[in-house]
Amino acid sequence: MSSDLRKEYTRVVWLRYQNANKRRKGLILDEFCATRGISRKYAIRLFHRVPTHFKARPGRKKLFSDQAVYHLRKLWLLMNQMNSKRLKEALPFWLCFYVASAEVKAELLLMSHSTIDRKLAPFRSKVMRRLRSGTKPGRLLKTIIPIRPFDYEIKQPGYVEADTVAHCGGSLAGEFIWSLTFTDIFSGWTENRATWGKGSAGVLNGIREIEAVIPFSILGFNCDNGSEFLNYPLIEYMGPEGEKKRPQCLMTRSRAYKKNDNAHVEQKNWTHVREMFGYDRFSNLAQVELMNRIYRDEHSLLHNFFYPQMKLKTKLRVGSRYKRTYTTPKTPYQRILECEHVPQQAKDKLTALFRTLNPFRLRKQMQQKLKDFYKAQNPNTDQKEKEAA
Question: What pTM, to 2 d.p., does this model score?
Fold first, then answer.
């Protein structure tokens, strides 16, 4: 009898021995001694030990079941692959609409952000970021618009940064779609609109539409040095002679080649535009309205009501490195509700809207619209699929 076979036989007989009465144990011992060719006393000593196969796993017991980890992975993908700290704060909102057992939901809410990182480590996907810029300087109006990046210790909404993203596919030649990104520094509230080209009329119409839906008034407008912003129509719109009859011109601009002056909107160009639409070239005019429906109807509601954002609290240089401390992640909607400078009427309107929203339904609707969008991008796809079938 081989060593492995002896161990397996001993385990099987050990189980029978533990569940037997006194008379039966004697018979089992006789059988075991005859089969193994060992003395009765040695067999009794073997049966008083716990076989290695039945010993408890060393270390701490598992706190979270495999089912909870499975649902965590599924939620992480559905929630746009948030980092662990944002995911931890967003889970209470999303779990209200998620179909799972009460035990699984309780386990997910108990997970810390470090536990979430450990459980998701095998599943994380690495996304390579490619950078392109379509900014061309608007030199003529630089003397009119002052260089004045915002003080980031802003305590109320209304101070916004704006930028554009080129959907050019690697070549800036010809006409194609641009995305306008509009971000509030205090709350992180972000709106996007698509325009055909980046002419002053299209960008101004996008800004006008965005200002009509944001829950606060614009108190300051900071942009880069691109010609889509440094033009007379936009300066007039932001000034005392514009449609809003503002008391003074609100426009300022960042320093040339200093992206940190517009850091808030630069990061939203990635999270709100590139992560969804990538780097393809969109040169079909019909796609502008399809893209705006996505931005306006689902994308804005998901990011502003259900995606928490972290804000930098302190930044300390220690040797050659920086030690950064962040605030507790909150959604733009939560920051608006907590701000005393926002009128109660605007807060009540946002709360009423929030109660009608379901993040999973919004995400499903957005995915369907994205399919329609890419069908317009590749109109021959359906025909090829039918021929292949």
Answer: 0.73
